[in-house]
Write a structure and sequence with these properties.
This protein is α/β, with parallel strands linked by helices. Among the domains are: 105 residues, Succinate dehydrogenase/fumarate reductase flavoprotein, catalytic domain (Flavocytochrome C3, Chain A, domain 1), CATH 3.90.700; 111 residues, Up-down Bundle (Methane Monooxygenase Hydroxylase, Chain G, domain 1). The protein is built from 14 helices and 20 strands. The strands form 5 sheets. Strands 1, 2, 8, 9, 10, 11 and 18 form a 7-stranded mixed β-sheet that branches. The chain is globular. The protein starts with 6 loop residues before the first strand and ends in a 15-residue tail after the last strand.
Length: 547
């Protein structure tokens, strides 16, 4: 649609096309023009992989207070109670909107079928078999047709546009930081577009690709966190990275998530001898929160030297398994495992970033006209550990809150200043792109080994020193070479990894997803968020600045 133009002007720019980005785009399209920029194809994000569902109180046996209590318990007292109440209360509206958009939620007769997952005290998970995220995304994409929405695919955001890109003498330099869009690389044409917008929503998802083993898709490289931090936003609680306990173990092949719902429906964890090793770990056994289960598996594997544990569904009716988990059944069968008769080999994998760009209850970041929703945002909803299926709920809720902010606060009549085009003068292609691959492999391996499920002060300090070196190498390469997607991603991974380690070093306790063997107990003095700002992070590299 935009041809080879290096300039795009719109009312709203949405970075990301998952549930948060699409939900916001649908609502913002009633207010003005929307451009949705996505790094890959429209459906290549984590939303399409979400198996579990949307946690929403529906049953008369359930209650808002019970859902809140479950969320607080999982979050280890670090959640923001006011945020949790607002999001949980949005659950009924979220369910109505999904039904209105044609999402085929599973039913028993005329009644919505509700699933049970770890950490929940009642059945409250709305789902579409074991492919809920995919069904929601497909419905949203269909609804976006013939709306005031333009999609630009294979467009990789490089940096947010702020007044820091204006001349030093510009009068806006003395004003609070404002966002006017982003520099975005069109991978198809190899050009960098200046996309100007009166409001920008970060919906870029998480950063599972920080780690060697992850359930996340290739696009999940923490781009939003890194871009927002460079622009001056506050990030918070990045030390809390959730590792899903059950990722299909497939050495040398593609791995995939084995949903929380499998354990919710009676799946039992066993070691190679058939013993249920969760006995004695937690009275809830397989239904304990994810951090407890993931740590138990990690501890068992390290103690025994085994490469995986097993998830057993063979005691369940085969027809039920095929009907309830059709995609998991098919994926496992394609990899030689008939889950009706055989145990599923599983290991933990990096899954969800509970921290992110700090937002208020209206989805505002600390940067004027920059909003954030979904996994990229830190709202205070999840605390030290996310409750299963609260993520899609939070994404829908904060997309709605962001749309309300856009309607009430964004002045569409405002003039956007003339911003400079992307400047790639002085760069040259050294044809040494193998360096990018090697540095990325080193960072992801370091994060898995030193900043993973179980941490220590020595490992974190070693990670800090090594990342300082890696950041310098990335910076040198970034400054000297033309911009490419893999280079943009590496730049963002290096910075975010540094921020995760910095946050982890600041929390001298163990709480939820952050477990440090040198500080095994939780302490009341750490019942606060770990916040980082650009000027507070020691580095002498170009990675903290924009272009």
């Amino acid at each position: 649609m935009f041809g080879d133009s290096k300039h795009i002007d719109t009312d709203f720019l949405v970075l990301g096309s998952g549930v948060a980005g699409l939900s916001f785009a649908l609502k913002a399209s009633r207010l003005g023009k929307v451009v949705v920029a996505t790094k890959g194809g429209i459906s290549e994000g984590a939303t399409s992989l979400a198996q579990g569902g949307v946690a929403a109180v529906q049953s008369p046996e359930d209650s808002i207070d019970a859902h809140i209590e479950d969320t607080l318990r999982a979050g280890r007292d670090l959640v923001h109670v006011d945020v949790v109440r607002r999001v949980v209360e949005f659950g009924a509206q979220a369910a109505s909107e999904l039904i209105e958009l044609g999402v085929p939620l599973d039913r028993r007769g005329e009644t919505l079928e509700l699933g049970l997952e770890g950490g929940h005290s009642h059945k409250r998970i709305l789902h579409v078999a074991d492919a809920t995220g995919k069904a929601i995304e497909e419905a949203f994409i269909e609804a976006a047709k013939n709306r005031n929405i333009t999609f630009i695919t294979n467009h990789c955001a490089i940096d947010l546009l702020t007044q820091h890109h204006l001349p030093a003498s510009h009068p806006m330099q003395n004003q609070p930081t404002q966002c006017w869009g982003a520099y975005i690389l069109d991978e198809n044409l190899g050009i960098v577009r200046t996309v100007r917008a009166k409001a920008t929503l970060l919906a870029t998802g998480g950063g599972g690709r920080l780690y060697q083993h992850t359930t996340n898709p290739p696009v999940s490289t923490a781009d939003g966190v890194a871009m927002a931090f460079r622009a001056g936003a506050t990030v918070a609680n990045l030390e809390f990275f959730q590792f899903h306990p059950t990722m299909f173990y497939n050495p040398g092949g593609d791995s995939f998530l084995i949903s929380e719902a499998v354990r919710g429906e009676g799946g039992m964890l066993r070691n190679r001898n058939g013993e249920r090793f969760m006995e004695g770990v937690d009275e809830r056994m397989e239904l304990a929160p994810r951090d407890v289960v993931a740590r138990a598996i990690d501890t068992h594997l390290k103690r025994t030297g085994d490469v995986c544990v097993f998830l057993d569904l063979t005691h369940k009716d085969g027809n039920f398994i095929e009907e309830r988990f059709p995609n998991i059944f098919r994926h496992c069968l394609e990899n030689g495992i008939d889950i009706r008769k055989e145990w599923i080999p599983v290991v933990p994998g990096a899954h969800y970033m509970c921290g992110g760009v700090k937002v208020d209850s209206s989805a505002r970041t600390g940067i004027v006209n920059l909003l954030a929703a979904g996994e990229v945002a830190f709202s205070g909803m999840h605390g030290a550990n996310r409750l299963a299926s609260n993520s899609l709920l939070e994404s829908l809720a904060y997309a709605h809150f962001a749309s309300e902010t856009a309607r009430e606060s964004i002045r569409l009549e405002q003039n956007i200043p003339e911003l400079p085009d992307w400047d790639d003068s002085g760069v040259f292609d050294r044809h040494e792109w193998v360096i990018i691959r090697h540095l990325r492999e080193e960072i992801t391996r370091l994060m898995w080994d030193y900043v993973g499920i179980v941490r220590s002060d020595d490992r974190l300090e070693a990670a800090r020193r090594l990342l300082h070196y890696f950041m310098r190498e990335v910076d040198l390469f970034y400054r000297a070479n033309p911009v490419r997607r893999d280079l943009v991603e590496l730049r963002n991974l290096a910075l975010t990894a540094t921020l995760v380690v910095k946050s982890a070093l600041m929390r001298k306790e163990s709480r939820g997803l952050h477990f440090n063997i040198d500080h095994p107990d939780s302490e009341a003095k750490f019942l606060l968020d770990t916040e980082l700002r650009n000027e507070e992070v020691e580095t002498d590299t170009h990675l903290l600045g924009s272009q």
